[in-house]
Design a protein that fits this description.
InterPro entries: Nucleotide-bd_a/b_plait_sf, PUF60_regulator, PUF60_RRM1, PUF60_RRM2, RBD_domain_sf, RRM_dom
Protein name: RRM domain-containing protein
CATH superfamily of the largest domain: RRM (RNA recognition motif) domain
CATH topology of the largest domain: Alpha-Beta Plaits
Number of strands: 12
Number of domains: 2
Order of helices and strands: HHEHEEHEEEHEHEEHEEE
Shape: elongated
CATH class of the largest domain: Alpha Beta
GO molecular function: RNA binding
Number of helices: 7
Oligomer: single chain
Distance between the termini: 101 Å
GO cellular component, one term: catalytic step 2 spliceosome
CATH architecture of the largest domain: 2-Layer Sandwich
Pfam family, one: RRM_1
Largest sheet: 4 strands, antiparallel
Structural class: alpha+beta
């Protein structure tokens, strides 16, 4: 009692006491800490965003690799039980280099079960065999050739995307090329259909021996389509070319 409370004008008009040296240091440290935490938070968000981007990119790459692996395989059904693996290999080899052939064998009968999976080194070879071997008579039966069934439904969307990307190019695939023919030989033959912007044969370990297939890109789509229509099954050097997209 008797003590007077400071009036509002006194509070508003009066000046605050200056910070002591240790208090000023504490405020400076607090500002520095807040700034450091802010920078850490920004860096953390940037790192997290970068990691998420990397994971998304890796996931996309894995999906594309899985899709391409599926695109390299074909299912061959309705195979005569008298046919051996070598016959299947010889029938499908003209479309491109074969990585593996998997025939399911019955241990009781010691015969295969009438179907096989053929895996090519490249998807273009598998696609061409799909287009040209389905329904072909082999060993007295019309074989059935389809894309390998996938247990990954999400792969189909990626496959569709890859196929759409391929349509942007006027590129054709040429297989069953005689080993003694060169890139110049192929280019000289195929440029009859229009200007060629790219012609390349695939080579393996030896730089002097191609693998029997290659790619040609034309300046226009009509030229590419005409080359496919005219040169598929054309006898060049004693081998029938297989040509597709």
């Amino acid at each position: 009692p008797g003590a007077r409370c400071p009036t509002l004008p006194a509070i508003l008009g009066g000046s605050l006491p200056r910070l002591a040296s240790d208090q000023a240091d504490a405020v400076a440290r607090a500002k520095k800490y807040a700034m450091e935490q802010s920078i850490k938070m920004v860096l953390m968000k940037q790192t997290l965003a970068h990691q998420q981007q990397q994971m998304a990119t890796q996931r996309t790459q894995v999906q594309r690799q899985q899709a391409l692996a599926l695109m390299c395989r074909v299912y061959v059904g309705s195979i005569s039980f008298e046919l051996k693996e070598d016959t299947i290999r010889q029938a499908f080899l003209p479309f491109g280099p074969i990585k593996s052939i998997n025939m399911s064998w019955d241990p009781v009968t010691q015969k295969h079960k009438g179907f096989a999976f053929v895996e090519y080194e490249i998807p273009e070879a598998a696609q061409l065999s799909l287009e040209q071997m389905n329904g072909v008579m082999l060993g007295g039966r019309n074989i059935k050739v389809v894309g390998r069934p996938s247990n990954m439904p999400q792969a189909q969307a990626v496959i569709d995307e890859i196929q759409e990307e391929a349509k942007q190019y006027n590129r054709i695939y040429v297989a069953s090329i005689h080993p003694e023919l060169t890139e110049d030989d192929i280019k000289n033959v195929f440029e009859a259909f229009g200007p060629i912007t790219y012609c390349k044969l695939a080579y393996g370990a030896s730089a002097h021996k191609h693998k029997g297939y290659g790619f040609i890109e034309y300046a226009t789509l009509p030229a590419a389509l005409e080359a496919i229509a005219s040169m598929n099954l054309f006898d060049l050097g004693g081998q029938y070319l297989r040509v597709g997209r």
